[in-house]
Specification:
The complex is a heterodimer. Chain A is mainly alpha-helical. Chain A is built from three helices and two strands. Chain B has four helices and nine strands. In chain B, helix 1 packs across helix 3 (35-47) and helix 2 (24-31) packs across helix 3. Classes of the chains: A mainly alpha, B alpha+beta. Chains A and B meet through strand 1, helix 1, strand 2 and helix 2 of A and helix 1, helix 4, strand 7, strand 8 and strand 9 of B. Strand 1 of chain A pairs antiparallel with strand 9 of chain B.
Chain lengths: 76, 146
Amino acid sequence: MLFFRSEEQIDAWCAARNVPRRPLVRMDQLWHLAVTWYATRLEPESRRPAPSEMRGIFERLGLYGDFWDPSSDTFR
Amino acid sequence: MDFVLQVKLAVYRTTARQGGPPEAEALARELGVPIAKLAEAYADLAKHRLLVLEGDGLTIRMAPPFSGVPTQHRVRVEGIDYFANCAWDALAIPAALHRPGEVHSRCEQSLEPLQLAVGLDGPEPTNWLFHTPVPAARWWQDIVYT
């Protein structure tokens, strides 16, 4: 899970490793994921999203597809 | 309070205070328990993906979003430097601490430095991007690589 300066840099990084380019995530989307997963981490009642909730969380941020689904068999 | 929860809070609050996870022996002393009892609690927390441990079962590699080892993602919050496990966790440290911070990282391809201010409502406007080649279904197959 890495930062990149631009889409072109991601393409170059993927090409150099012969891995497919995956969905791009903007910083504002990443912030929402960070808050959803970790905002209560230091509290007694903290919880992380259950696998069944994750696809919906990603979809609400505009991140669609099996890539974001922890129960998907597509990428296993 | 449940002992495992007590350990979790102690680990995370110590990490927040000092910038990295506590040493097991120091934490066992603080909690007044034998090291074996602490190890049991650590194993339980690891099972629930709240800690990632080294092979000895007592050294904390990750207390997500915090890293127990140096990484290329450094986050400064109120004068304390933390290491994050990944780009996601770099933004998650200010989110978890509910404090503004500054992320210092890099473009993984060009190695151009990234310095990103993160406020209570999120990062400053930027066109930097996040990318992971690993699909969600495989994130925990090798969490260190992920």
